[in-house]
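Morning F.,

Quick status update on the modeling queue. The single chain you submitted on Monday has been processed. Sequence for confirmation:
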Amino acid sequence: MEREEQFRRNHELFRIFTREALTNPNIRERIPQDAEIIFLPEHDPELKAANLELANKLSAEGKKVTFVKVSLVAETMTVFVPKLELVESA
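Structure tokens below.
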């Protein structure tokens, strides 16, 4: 995977992650101070493999790495729509 493509895909995940981290202090507290955040997207095996390769490189350089597993979860909302039908009058 080209480094530019990897950056583009990770940027979108980082945007989502940042929004979640701002509203969830538990996430912020669990990330070590100087850690590099590496996303492991279950829905994108190519990016996941590239990010694991990057994580290995960073670890070899002595950097702390924190993994963030990314899964797609179905989100549904029940919407009630009025249904009208004519019935015979009594």
